[in-house]
């Protein structure tokens, strides 16, 4: 029989229950028992949902209080020294995730530990906590592994449960040497034998607890691997295969792309099943089928875990039938291409969405239905699911034929784009002089990345507008007051280039999605971004049109309040593309260019209204980089072109900023140079300083603002700490190129923290100016 299962399910909950529970715990409103009971109920609800939809197996261990990579570190005792004196359990766990700052009491000394580094999970907008390994890292299985308890829970409910583990090789590859360990002498694969001992112990215990299959995620198998990484796979899996007295079966999963040249490696491994992503890479099916061993199972990643369009079930069935013809029904599993973590929970609550477009969508819950239909069609014949298949074909035809997706004016503009629209009028040196003459900024100019605290009042104001309790005018009055408060605050703190604070924006991408045609947005389509923070990616279904200016009123109002330069804030085309669910009926490049033209128009309007500085955020440009190097150049060519198209329609004296966070700059350096922004502000405060050496090595000569304040943590960095950071930065970058700023927007922080941190930041810049 063909079985159906998903690789993982969204953990946040239909109503973001996980967020409320965990944030309630952090604020002291929820105690430990309530937290643990709440997440337990949520897990059960998600497992039951999958079983009720007709899936044969449920994943166990994919849910997490903060991040599943952090869970893996805790599971194997990979806790950096600086957290080891904290209370083990939730205190140490959350301190690793988000830092911990607590004043001294009579009985306990003060605690002040920063958070661990966060990075993008492959090419997604999900962030994981980067494991830190000592030179001779010890691995020690937790006394009470959470996954064992969860397996017992699922089995007690009578469910067929499949524990999910991050595989040892991917885990090692995702980590980094701990502080003080020299990167040059660090050999992560030297840690493999010790790590495998802990994995084997865990697999033994899972087997004893009743697991028959374990899902081991090895997404690194879709990357270009070093020889050392390739060599690690057979070593690892030979050892793991012997675990569970050889009774346990391992399903090794790959996702986010094709296994490509790693297929030979994969099929040598002594594993019982393989999962491949057929949504991103359907072309790999034949090669995988040919390479599979005699008894190996194949899990077909047919239902897209990264996008929200209903699947083409006829196409999926064609692929699945091919697998069944070769392997027989008992060796085939139908599955999601990746975990469903990256799509929202359900379309069920989307009653306000345009009905025609809603009919085209499948979120996680609806994807479970699709999986069940596929399995039924393969097991019982298509007639058993005739209505579902007919309905699916009707939707695909309706979408393809819809007049809603095309706009002739947008198409015409794209045809008339000229090469001159991708270039500033003169080179940076000349622009720099004109901008200095206009803005008269001091050395080490200070600014922020754009957003200021999105307080409960701000979010509630938007909720009132949404519910019709406030008129648009009442909301606008409220936002103006927020803008004025933010401008006065920045003047008082002493920043040099101000921002309006983005209080009118729910999110830097969703806001633009709501303002542009060609987009729809959901009411409850939340997707985890990091920890308890979620985003609601808007959905691009058609050609992009900017019906009217999107940011002009607020920016011009903010500028009218101050004589200091005001920076207009826009989100760049690649970030809008990357953080939206995008249409799959045209190349991403075409959508990016449509977005770029809309943003170019906004830039022109801001400039014409006298705004002297405009920031076009592109934090997602690195994240969009294809996972295989062979595909990088093609992507970077159009991605940078899209940025240039959005940003170059201004005079020399208008200063263009861009901002990037969580970027591994070394990989895309020449692209960043080609973007030719006058100022780039970058994330840098949690990562080490090596990224700055790239700016030095590549003789980057435009202005740079490496973040010196980690805004993702509630911790306030001291003057001394920021001074040290800045001095270290100045070893790599010339004084006259450096700006001083936080590493990202301040929307997640509270005003008191922001006041304390920015006061320190300005003090550091002023002290440096005096020295210079
Ligand atoms: C810079 N980052 C971003 C990424 N992706 C984006 N799309 N946007 C980004 O900014 N990726 C990389 C990083 C990730 N960083 C963050 C940072 C912060 C958040 C975040 O704070 N998310 C919020 C939700 C934001 C939002 O859309 N708010 C809405 C709705 C707010 C809400 O929950 N309202 C309540 C009612 C009000 C109340 O009573 O409080 C409700 O509807 O129930 C808004 O402001 O209107 C979060 O809370 O998770 C995400 C990624
Ligand atoms: N301007 C945005 C950028 C975040 S990446 C902000 O400040 O929130
Ligand atoms: Zn940022």
From TrEMBL:
L-methionine binds at residues 502, 617. L-homocysteine binds at residue 617. The active site is at residue 712. GO terms for molecular function: 5-methyltetrahydropteroyltriglutamate-homocysteine S-methyltransferase activity; zinc ion binding. It comes from the Eukaryota. Pfam families: Meth_synt_1, Meth_synt_2. Keywords: Amino-acid biosynthesis, Metal-binding, Methionine biosynthesis, Methyltransferase, Transferase, Zinc. 5-methyltetrahydropteroyltri-L-glutamate binds at residues 19, 125, 533-534, 579. Residues 444-766 form the Cobalamin-independent methionine synthase MetE C-terminal/archaeal domain. Residues 4-323 form the Cobalamin-independent methionine synthase MetE N-terminal domain. Binds 2 Zn(2+) ions per subunit. Its cofactor is Zn(2+). Zn(2+) binds at residues 659, 661, 683, 744. Catalyzes the transfer of a methyl group from 5-methyltetrahydrofolate to homocysteine resulting in methionine formation. Belongs to the vitamin-B12 independent methionine synthase family. This is 5-methyltetrahydropteroyltriglutamate--homocysteine S-methyltransferase. It comes from Thamnocephalis sphaerospora.
């Amino acid at each position: 029989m063909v079985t159906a299962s998903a690789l993982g399910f969204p953990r946040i909950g239909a109503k973001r229950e996980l967020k409320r529970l965990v944030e309630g715990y952090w604020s002291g409103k929820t105690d430990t028992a309530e937290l643990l009971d709440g997440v337990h109920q949520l897990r059960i609800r998600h497992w039951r949902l999958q079983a009720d939809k007709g899936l044969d197996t449920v994943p166990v261990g994919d849910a997490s209080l903060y991040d599943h990579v952090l869970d893996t570190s805790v599971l194997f005792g990979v806790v950096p020294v600086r957290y080891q004196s904290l209370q083990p359990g939730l205190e140490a766990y959350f301190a690793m995730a988000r830092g911990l700052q607590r004043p001294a009491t009579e009985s306990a000394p003060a605690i002040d530990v920063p958070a661990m580094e966060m990075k993008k999970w492959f090419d997604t907008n999900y962030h994981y906590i980067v494991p830190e390994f000592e030179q001779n890292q010890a691995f020690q299985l937790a006394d009470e592994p959470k996954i064992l308890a969860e397996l017992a829970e699922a089995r007690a409910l009578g469910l067929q449960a499949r524990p999910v583990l991050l595989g040892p090789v991917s885990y090692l590859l995702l980590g980094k040497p701990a502080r003080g360990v020299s990167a040059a002498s660090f050999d992560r694969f030297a840690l493999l034998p010790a790590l495998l001992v802990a994995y084997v112990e865990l697999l033994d215990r899972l087997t004893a607890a009743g697991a028959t299959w374990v899902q081991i995620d090895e997404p690194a198998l879709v990357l270009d691997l070093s020889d050392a990484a390739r060599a690690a796979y057979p070593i690892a899996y030979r050892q793991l295969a012997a675990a569970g007295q050889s009774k346990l079966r391992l399903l090794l999963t790959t996702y986010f792309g094709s296994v490509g040249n790693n297929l030979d490696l994969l099929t040598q491994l002594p594993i019982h099943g393989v999962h491949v992503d057929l949504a991103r890479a359907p072309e790999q099916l034949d090669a995988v089928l040919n390479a599979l061993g005699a008894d190996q199972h194949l899990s077909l990643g047919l239902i897209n875990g990264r996008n929200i369009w209903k699947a083409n079930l006829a196409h999926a069935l064609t692929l699945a039938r091919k697998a069944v013809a070769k392997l027989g029904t008992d060796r085939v599993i139908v599955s999601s291409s990746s975990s469903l973590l990256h799509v929202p929970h359900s379309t069920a609550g989307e009653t306000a969405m345009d009905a025609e477009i809603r009919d085209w969508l499948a979120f996680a819950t609806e994807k479970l239905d699709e999986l069940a239909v596929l399995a039924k069609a393969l097991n019982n014949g298509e007639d058993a699911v005739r209505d579902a298949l007919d309905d699916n074909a009707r939707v695909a035809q309706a979408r393809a034929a819809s007049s809603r997706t095309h706009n002739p004016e947008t198409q015409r503009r794209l045809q008339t784009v000229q090469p001159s629209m991708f270039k500033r009028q003169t080179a940076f040196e000349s622009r720099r002089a004109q901008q200095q003459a206009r803005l008269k900024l001091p050395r080490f100019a200070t600014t922020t990345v754009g957003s200021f605290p999105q307080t409960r009042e701000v979010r509630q104001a938007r909720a009132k507008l949404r519910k019709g309790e406030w008129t648009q005018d009442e909301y606008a009055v409220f936002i103006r007051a927020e803008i004025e408060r933010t401008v006065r605050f920045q003047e008082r703190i002493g920043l040099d280039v101000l921002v309006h604070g983005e209080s009118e924006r729910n999110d830097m991408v969703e806001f633009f999605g709501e303002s542009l045609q060609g987009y729809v947005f959901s009411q409850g389509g939340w997707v985890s971004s990091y920890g308890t923070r979620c985003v609601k990616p808007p959905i691009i279904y058609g050609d992009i049109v900017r019906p009217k200016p999107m940011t002009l009123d607020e920016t011009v109002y903010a500028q009218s309040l101050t004589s200091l330069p005001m920076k207009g804030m826009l989100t760049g085309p690649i970030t809008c593309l990357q953080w939206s669910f995008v249409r799959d009926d045209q190349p991403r490049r075409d959508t990016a260019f449509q977005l770029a033209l809309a943003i170019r128009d906004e830039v022109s309007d801001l400039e014409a209204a006298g705004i002297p500085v405009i920031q076009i955020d592109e934090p997602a440009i690195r994240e969009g980089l294809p996972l295989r190097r062979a595909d990088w150049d093609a992507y970077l060519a159009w991605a940078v072109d899209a940025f240039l198209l959005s940003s170059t329609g201004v005079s020399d004296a208008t200063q263009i900023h861009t901002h990037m966070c969580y970027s591994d700059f070394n990989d895309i350096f020449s692209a960043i140079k080609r973007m030719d922004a006058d100022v780039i502000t970058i994330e840098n405060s949690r990562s080490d300083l090596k990224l700055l050496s790239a700016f030095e090595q590549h003789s980057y000569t435009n202005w740079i603002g490496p973040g010196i304040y980690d805004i993702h943590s509630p911790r306030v960095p001291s003057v001394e700490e920021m001074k040290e950071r800045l001095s270290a930065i100045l070893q790599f970058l010339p004084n006259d190129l450096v700006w001083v700023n936080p590493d990202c927007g301040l929307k997640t922080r509270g005003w008191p923290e922001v006041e304390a941190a920015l006061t320190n930041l300005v003090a550091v810049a002023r002290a440096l100016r005096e020295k210079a």
